Amino acid sequence: NGEPQRWVGCSVDVTNARRMERLLAEAEAAAHVGSWELDAASGRLTWSDENYLLHETSREEFEPTLEAAIGFFAPEHRELLREAVRGSLERGESWEFEAELVGARGRRFWIRTSARPEVVDGRVLRVYGACVDIDAQKRDQLLLKRQGDWLRMSFDAAALSAWRWFPDVDEVNTEHGGSSLRPGEVAHGTL
Questions:
Q1: What DSSP line would sit under 122-156, residue for residue?
Q2: Is 166 helix (H, G, I), strand (E, B) or coil?
Q3: Rounded CA gap, 80 and 78, in Å?
Q4: Maximum Cα interatomic distance, the chain, rounded to a whole number of Å
């Protein structure tokens, strides 16, 4: 007679999944960590909302592709990233390194990026990873290195000596005119 005989349906409660998605997005925003995923078969690159923010862009402004994403890296770091991605896709290698990024608005800053491949039956299905803004810490690290280099250069130029005592191991580290001496060695008649 054309009337339905029965109805068949299914319902799934997605409340917990939505809550977990929201929690992940909030955690990424709080930590300034962006995440991404590269599908090995299609080459499709997917970014989290925080990854767009980190790159100073949005879903409406930018469609991520692998080569376009690599283009955000400072020129001197692009080949390093290409090799790392190739290693993940071809050999299932994980990676992590620090590099400078240039955001869509022109800000140049340091990030730490890492990735892990998902390998099933010897085949890479996808590569997923994260980027975290480490600019403040990296700039502090580089400043300390420059200051240390300047101090060593000053010691060398002045032919000064310096020593450090490590009481927990009762060891003295002596430097004279830029050359390290082992504990107990004598430099110009003094320890």
A1: TEEEEEEEEEEE-HHHHHHHHHHHHHHHHHHHHHH
A2: strand
A3: 5
A4: 113
Which residues, other chains included, contact 130 with Cβ-Cβ below 8 Å and sequence gap of 6+? 33, 34, 35, 36, 113, 114
Instruction: Tell me the two tokens of residue 149.
Output: 């280099």
- Lowest pLDDT segment from 40-44, 66-70, 109-113, 182-186: 182-186
Tens-digit pLDDT profile for residues 91-107: 999 999 999 999 999 99
85 contact partners, CB below 8 Å, separation of at least 6: 38, 66, 70, 115, 127
Alpha carbons 93 and 64: distance in angstroms, whole number = 22
pLDDT at 168 over 90: no
The answer to whether 43 and 66 are in contact (CB under 8 A) is: yes
Going by C-beta distance under 8 Å and a sequence separation of 6 or more, which residues neighbour residue 93? 84, 87, 117
Structure tokens at 153: 């250069």
- How many whole angstroms separate alpha carbon 177 and alpha carbon 25? 53
Contact 181, 175 (CB under 8 A): yes
